[in-house]
């Protein structure tokens, strides 16, 4: 039997363990925290017998998430599977503090008019026709570009430059900025045209695919609906799960990893090792000797992270809002939210926490550098209490029009992601003291040119693989989907080396309409010949001139 040690019990590590134990491997998972699941796990907000649960942020499963949903379908949960705990949404509220709200349908169209509306790019409604036409041209550029052009050319161009945001209308810039930030958690000035554009298209295609729901959420807190059943299943299959077991380093003899040294001095040994720790932790495990053996590992520390963390507001009454997500169009902290209670059909809220809690709004802040509306400071310069107050007031400013939907007397308590830790700096004397809070669980972001710094799951060390969302995957986005795919790739590499029985874990490519394949084949030839894409001419003179000037 092949024995494997997985360092890190987030989605990537658990996925690797899951698919390895299915192939007959003997697996041990080491997790530094007391709970498994990484950023996906829920956190009890107190030590009571039935506490409420807080989250790093709400979970979101768009249609193109194939790997993680397939793994969920392999996890039993009573008479069903964890995948049965997914619930489809119906609409997205786009709330504005200074204008009317808009509703975007997230269901598969069932009429001609619905299909025509769905064919418009997400959030493009009500834009000037010339801007919509230009955006459609840009998306067609992506759809007809060959893979090498995307990886070697479009990954080096920001989405902001690619869509010529500076040359378009203010409405176009504002709409695309918050659309990008809410959909893929990345500022358009930083993210590559390849990554943001590809995911943008996948979200659009997901609404047009009648075989899968456009987007789904869980029917309860993440740990209860997903992570806890997963841990029970892995334990039942014989996986040794060791929480509260932080690892310190990988012992390496120049050719092979020989053990995992734990913080308490113990060394755990196996024939194979999977490194599944977060991107901000991984460089600590890459010694100079390991980096020389596998140069791809040395580039992990060049990847960037950003702050994107969540807060839960527990309410005296259930404020349903829309049956889906809310996007706050001009909230300075780029907020998104979801009213959870309406989806939590598998969770008895009344039996958890204070009895007066009847509703939960889970919100995520994606911009921690813009000044807020209450204190005039960015989130990173606020105390935890100030962050909660600021987000609550920004939500109210967008949701309360003629009819108040959120009032202060509704609020019972709040729970901010515990990864946001106060540094001891005085928020009253900012900016002299710098950041008032630090983020101990930042999010990997895909910046321009970052693809070359993403390592493969199977690196050039004969008994080491990687399983985390910074691994190069088909979706190339920091997400549960990428982490699960990376875990599958690690498991397949180990199983292949040792000839383990069973079928390799399936890897799905992102699907795009086959009608564009002839154009991609033509572009492959153009790219080999050094020719530009035909749609390059639709870029504005300002953008082209700026790019040429930057290359001189």
Walk me through the structure.
The chain has helices spanning 11-22, 67-72, 112-119, 129-144, 147-152, 159-162, 170-184, 193-208, 222-236, 288-293, 384-399, 480-498, 517-528, 541-551, and strands at 3-7, 26-30, 42-44, 53-55, 61-62, 76-77, 80-81, 86-88, 91-95, 102-105, 215-218, 240-242, 247-252, 257-262, 267-268, 272-275, 304-306, 309-315, 325-328, 335-339, 359-365, 411-416, 420-422, 437-439, 443-445, 464-466. The chain is an alpha+beta fold and 552 residues long. It has a seven-stranded mixed β-sheet with strand order 10-9-19-20-21-18-22, sandwiched between helices. A five-stranded parallel β-sheet has the order 12-2-1-16-26, with helices on one face. Strands 5-11-8 form a three-stranded antiparallel β-sheet. A hairpin with a 4-residue loop joins strand 14 and strand 15. The model has no long low-confidence stretch (mean pLDDT 89).
